[in-house]
Structure prediction request, 263 residues.
Amino acid sequence: MSSLQSYLILSSLLFSIGLAGALTRRNAILVLIGIELMLNAANLNFIAFWRYGPNPEALTGIMFTIFSISIAAAEAAVGLSIILAAYRHSRTTNLDQMNSLKG
Amino acid sequence: MILAVLTVAGTAATMGLRNAVHCVLALTLGFTGVAMLYLQLGAQFVGFTQILVYIGAVAILAVFAIMMTHNDQPMDLPDSHSAWVAGCIVAVAVFAVLARAIVSSATTPQSQPQPAASVQQIGDALMHRFVLPLEIMGVLLTAALIGAVVIAMDRREEMK
Prediction:
């Protein structure tokens, strides 16, 4: 197994852990953190492909990762503020108890 | 290898621990592991950006949010068992599909020299080839900042 493949396996493992967290945790903040972990796995893929890809001097993988990290930061800020607003409304961050929009 | 174990242990602890604050502490460990992996791959700038943004901003923000939403009832009530099992099965299935695709794919095993990505090169690329995405990113971050403040603002005082 080549070095690139081991990085890809590690990244898919990170993705699966984030997915499992986002699916099983019932705290809204931890679900958001699980999504951040999945984004991190994607970034690790970008960097691994940049390192072992055919054209590393173009810096495309690095640029993708930098922009993706910025978007993840913006997403985390907005997501956490939405969770705070929802908590102020319903006094809970448990996703099973936030059911006031449920039909 | 050690870094991989560190990263996976940190992230798995993040998703497995009961106490939410402990989860975020484990999360910083996982993010540090990912940053070290970036450094190992030769992307110094991205590694340090990862430390600054994720550990410095996102994890701290998550701790603040957990503290502000903390109340007497236990943060993480015991999950319903069937949902937990279903989520784990989905995650394991996704990992199996991804791993099978990766292992069966034919990658050319070439040992290249470590590509250089100095900060100067990255700055040149950001200022010339990627200047429009950079500007758009600035607008996006400003909008997200204002939006986050507006959403999280307590409006009860205005009502009075």
